[in-house]
Amino acid sequence: MNKLILLFAVCVSTLSFAQTSLAQHRAAHLRHGINLSEWFAQVYDPKGYTKQHFETWTTADDMALIKSMGFDHVRLSINPQPMMRHNMADELPPEYLGYLDAAVKMILDQGLAVIIDMHPDSDFKAKLVQQDDFVEQFSDFWRALARHYSTYDPEMVYFEILNEPEFRDRYRWAGVQAKLANAIREGAPQHTIVAAGANWSDIPDLLSLTPLPDPDVIYNFHFYDPHTFTHQGATWGVNYWHFESKLAYPSNMENAEKVAAEQPDPVNHLAILEYALDHWDPNRISVEIGQAAEWAKRWNVPLTCNEFGVYRKDSDPLDRARWLHDVRTALEHNGIGWNMWDFGGRDHGRGFGVVNTEANGKNTPDEVTLQALGLKH
User: Fold this and answer.
1) Considering the domain boundaries, does residue 8 fall inside one?
2) Which residue range forms the structural domain that includes residue 255?
3) Is the pLDDT at 18 greater than 50, yes or no?
4) Cα–Cα distance between 273 and 351 in angstroms, integer?
């Protein structure tokens, strides 16, 4: 009996992978995107998720600016925690949903497609790793949210299952992702789902993933390699990053030795020297991204890169631009759509923005970044 079930699953899976034309078609709407962070997720204001925050953080003027810069879609990060009620996860709070509806309308009114990206904090994801009943509740939540948006144009609204799942156990993530995908599909039968590999959704996690038995799925990965360069100056993640400043790209030993000299710990000193020894340059990036493209070709599924970027605080603008250019061109060479992290110019410890924020709060394009992305205002 088990062998028959396994054979059936393989047949269904094979059939699904042969019918990816719709997902491939939908992926064509997701070529040049930008992330909208700290609006409905990652809100660092002590006041939290408030009416004032929702109505002022990102505006209709920002959406018009995004459109004018040449982007065709946005990835809207949403933290489910303020919306999800214990044992009543399928009962969405009307007031909160109203703010979200207004945001989605604001995006669609500019002719931008939107990926509704489920983007909770790490403690939420830890419960998914450990608790089956919490997976059930999250499935209920996703089913209800997908049903709410099921009447929206499926060419313009997409559902991303979970940002960077933080599942070290790839087999558990495979089961959880399949369950969540089924819930979304039950709520919105006509809409395209965006799925990812386990843990941090990087390329190795993608390569370890067996696609879902659903033909209408786009797969995504994140690319920040090498973090030694892209996260220099950052005060989260690996401790030694915050000692780095003006680490160059492409990597070279002379520059790496200067930056490494500021590291008080010899192990971290070595990590920076290894960045130079690893020869990070356009060819290295092309090879890495090429492996993701080979995976998608093997399974005949569409692929997108939903996050890539360089922290601005301590990186040289031209080195940052060179890295962005090389990643973006490698993605486009392989026919992979992309979504840069992120829009906001405000630096709340994670400034990767494509815009600068003036003293009056107005956002203006960062021309060096736009040029690296092959766009212009």
Assistant:
1) no
2) 229-279
3) no
4) 25
